Amino acid sequence: MEFTLDATSKNARAGTITTAHSTIKTPVFMPVGTIGSVKSLDAHDVLELLGAEIILANTYHMYLRPGDKTVAKMGKLHGFTKYPKSFLTDSGGFQAFSLSDMSKPKTDGIEFRSHIDGSKHFFTPKKVIDIQHNLGSDIMMILDDLVALPATQERIKLSIERTTAWAKESIEYFRMKQKEGVGTEQNIFAIIQGGTDKAFRTKSATELCALDYDGFAIGGLSVGELNNEMYDTVEHTVQYMPKDKPRYLMGVGTPEDLIENIERGIDMFDCVMPTRNARNGTLFTSFGKMNIKGAKFKEDPAPIDPECQCLTCKTYSRAYINHLFRSREITYFRLATIHNLHYYLTLMREVREAILENRFAEYKKEFYKKRSKS
Fold this sequence. Notes:
This protein is an alpha/beta fold. It folds into 2 domains: 244 residues, TIM Barrel (Alpha-Beta Barrel); 95 residues, no CATH class. It is 44% helix and 19% strand. The protein is built from 15 helices and 16 strands. The strands form 4 sheets. Strands 4-14-13-12-11-10-6-5 form an 8-stranded parallel β-sheet. A 3-stranded antiparallel β-sheet has the order 1-2-3. The chain is globular and about 60 Å long. It starts with a strand and ends with a helix. It comes from Sulfurimonas autotrophica (strain ATCC BAA-671 / DSM 16294 / JCM 11897 / OK10). Pathway: tRNA modification; tRNA-queuosine biosynthesis.
């Protein structure tokens, strides 16, 4: 993987990530394809209608079903899904933590029960890498010890100690396997933890960023803290992260969250929000959120967003989308998801252009000005 920093506008960054499968212009939002599929879309939609150069798949879910060995036999993620661009796979630690009542982080890994059949499993730093070798992702995340907020100082301290220990084990194993010819086109990111405590974030970032990783993520946010706490934590943490490697903020968030954290120096984002909200009737637009289920849209001939050039907005009215939602028609999910993801990806492209022209501050003002009129 290569990363070049193309321009900055104060702390906002525009970069280029080159993997074995695609060239990714940053800032970038990665659509979430948890089980190798962005919900309600196929590879053609993601490629041709959205132009996404990278999507996220989930290690935990792919390991449980259909199984990482099955994926490997079927051509790994790229061959199995027919999405030829880049994949990022998260470590599965968050899902083991959040989806199972029987999740127990231990010194050497995470014990959990499958949410599908209750079977017992144990993720270690090495096993998570082995799974992701089978998946063939372009960027893999290491196992970390995630803590929900609020949490005690003792629990956060234990979290960063485990995360650092697992990170050292992970990078040593990953580089050893590369020397053996395994995962030579794959890349690996570490995950900084520490809650909203600045001293803990400093410690975690300093320890991890001293290791030979291809990029670094900020994890453990958007898990219960206030927005301003998240922003302050990101602003504090990025100063300890290398300028010449990608910075990834995991699981965040709203369009406003993206703008605020780009301003603080983040390059990469993912979140289920645009796809999940689409399915629930909430659409993102240049003037804010729209609840398409509202009765006022029943006879509205306008597109969802007059400024949007997605397939849905160029073709269909709010009235039709409202009708599809109220009828629970399957077509609604595809059209709404296309719109929301198109909005997010277009937002990132516009932001990048503003950074390249050193006018990010002006873009941010206009972004909020439009929302204030809605």
